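Shipment paperwork, digital attachment
Item: protein structure file
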Amino acid sequence: MHAYRTHTCGDLRLADAGSNVRLSGWIHRKRDHGGLMFIDLRDHYGLTQLVLSPGTPGFEIVERLRAESVIRIDGEVVARSAETVNTNLPTGEVEVRVREIEVLSEAAELPVPVFGEPDYPEDLRLKYRYLDLRRETLHRNIVLRSKVISSIRKRMIDQGFTEFQTPILTASSPEGARDFLVPSRLHPGEFYALPQAPQQFKQLLMVSGFDRYFQIAPCFRDEAARADRSPGEFYQLDMEMSFATQDDVFAVIEPVMVGVFEEFGEGKAVTPAPFPRIPFREAVAKYGSDKPDLRNPIEMQDVSTHFRGSGFKVFANILENPRAAIWAIPAPGGGSRAFCDRMNDWAKGEGQPGLAYIFWREGEGDETAAGPVARNIGPERAEAIRQQLDLNIGDAVFFAAGEPSAFYKFAGAARTKVGTDLGLIDENQFKFCWIVDFPMYEYNEEDKKIDFSHNPFSMPQGEMEAFKANDPLDILAYQYDIVCNGIELSSGAVRNHRPDIMLKAFELAGYSREEVEEKFAGMINAFRFGAPPHAGVAPGIDRIVMLLAGTSAIRDVIAFPFNQQAQDLMMNAPSPVTDKQLKELHIRIVPPVKV
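Attachment content:
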């Protein structure tokens, strides 16, 4: 017999009754029922109920053991009586009558419990992450992550992609976030950087003649944590393909996403391919976001015309600015003063002066529109707004006013708030879309200059002809994001593979030819020796698993995450190093200046 087990704790079924078995695992919990002791024994695979009588050798030892101690048992599988069958467990029709016990490891008093799902402080859970990971939900999430990655890998290989590994130690490059730097011992005063993404390497692989690349790639960025972003490191499905258009990338990624979300989505509806394609400016105008949650049916509209010259002077005066607009946020079912007042209070909590509204209630003739805005603009204009938005009695509408560039994010947040509070969001589906046609450039108010808005290595739509446009802000790029349920899964682009176009693109953003040649020498020089047109994308693994696991915190799908301050409390990282180590690296620490 094997030293530790003949079966796992998830194996045994009614057909095994009468068998002699050996199991090993953790004591999940103990229950004393009038002389008989019941133990739920747990391992990676599941739970099995054990039964011990006072005469069982080792009974007294087990009686004093704490939960999470590790034991080995020998015993006989017996069928449970009908009234004691546990239908919630795959092993629930049987139990093991224990004959012999060996204690493999005795647990000390636990700093955090494993049984159940109690809400303990995050820092305590992260310090004892190995205990936290024994809990059912987290354990299941990490297994799910492994299965998702395996499925993605198979789906990419089945489409003719080859998996490559790219360097972890590389050169610093302006990717949009801060680099993690690694000092070089052999080259004093010089540093490697951990890659923010394998961007340049995967493009160089295309130049090298490898047609279809992918990698489950680790990426490193020294940036602040968010609910959907782990500080420090994350993983992505990095892919690139040669002789490819934007449509080719979509045709590869869509079946991967549909397949994975159907496989692991527990029956939730998944947007079928092809996914909707929404131009960036349309997404901002309709949803107030370039990562819209399409489960929310609310679409905003411009209703400026109904307020020009109206009796509502606040909006009429705002519209004297030619760049200003009034956007309407419909609220089907929100037609009560109580709901409108709650939204108004919410807006004030968001730092806004308030949220103007109209709601429609039962009344006679033109007396159905209610609220201060309705009284000021009159019944005809209020009715015109209702008809434009296709609203009914019992509905409401909220308004955002000013220059859209300044208020669109707040309008998008209001749309989300209305949809959530009115129960309009269908939680039982995964709604995908592509956001396309991103502007190549944006105006940097801080530096008072034109800057790249997304990815500087993207191909402008129209290639060299695009630069003949009168205004660089009108140039669109072949850039695209894939979005699911309001979560941006990735950015991608058709790459700029021509040195002449790249130099021109950077020139408009204020870079000299010398700067470009120096900072991107490896890539731009490679392009001078024959580069195929190529395109790619990189969906985030962590965010995919987060959606499938049904959690809003990305740390719940990462085995050993940092806390919000980018610290590993379990391993005490980051940590000081010795003077000897610093001397070897030719580094001296300069304490920060206290202000």
